[in-house]
Amino acid sequence: MIIVLKPRCKKKSVEAVLKKIRELGFTPHAIVGVERTVIGAVGDDRDKHMLEALETYPCVEKLVPILQPYKLASREIRREATVVKVDSALFGGGHFGVIAGPCSVENEKQIVQTAIGVKKAGAKMLRGGAFKPRTSPYSFQGLEREGLKLLAKAREESGLPFVTEVINPEDVEMVGDYADALQIGARNVQNFSLLRRVGKFGKPIVLKRGMSTTIQEFLMSAEYVLSEGCKDVILCERGIRTFESATRNTLDLSAVLVIHERSHLPIIIDPSHATGVRNYVPPLCYAAMACGADGVMVEVHNDPQKALCDGPQSLGIEDFASVIRKLKELSKFSGKKL
Ligand code: PEP
Ligand code: MN
Q1: Helix/strand/coil for 98
Q2: What is the pTM of this model?
Q3: Residue from 140, 151, 183 to probe ligand 1 pocket by mutation (most atoms less than 8 Å from CB)
Q4: In the CATH hierarchy, which top-level class contains the domain 84-334?
């Protein structure tokens, strides 16, 4: 339920409403807007009639039921786009954030050189996996804590904040202490205990869509994170599994439009994992901007031929710099700030 308060309510009256919501067994999430405050009361839908008691409070203007199964992620609760800020990188509300870096951290030279290269080219955030969810147990699994230390070193050398994936709920504090933002990978999009843990941790989350996740399920996963108090969720479309086998996955660009209609959260595109083909990555970055996405996440390697993971889909630094140049040109027409 959304509880819309009258303009200029006194703090004491707002607190009384929040207290009542809690007494009724719901969790209030206050959203302070320019004009007025609205409160999202989330809890068991079967009990929502109990919230009608709030109509008698003088500062309450009206109660509006939230029709979607996701509440805090919905546009119904928040009309304005959420802008997620990670250091100086901005995503959403007209800001187009660019995240770039290798699939996985391999060694100091690789990650530091790549970080400095992508920063110079214009990236706003570094990516790199230290814990890799590989299909085969025999593939390179990542450098784990050593990888996190190397990412921290790359941040120091380049000035870029970094996002890295966390796979296990028990590792959230450890990974989160190093990282500026935590990534939940496609395979863990419905790992609900992991979603709850990262939601409690408090740092921004990049939540990737699963290969078989509907948009509704994707937004429900975001809801898990938001319901734990985290407000900074960046959604990432990275391709879904279809009958088509010419590309690694099928990039669902229309998800950007659907999500912008239904949610206030920013959504970025990962064309690298979506296609698995280096040459397809630049045009899809431009398509992402053209259809209104809030950014891209691109795999870039200082020496893609030698990459231990996802080399065929990784751009070299020069190619990445050319993508950024074209995105800057496009931003003049798309109205996005790069
Ligand atoms: C990644 O971004 O490193 C990754 C493994 O992607 P996904 O979870 O989308 O497969
Ligand atoms: Mn990868």
Answers
A1: strand
A2: 0.95
A3: 183
A4: alpha beta
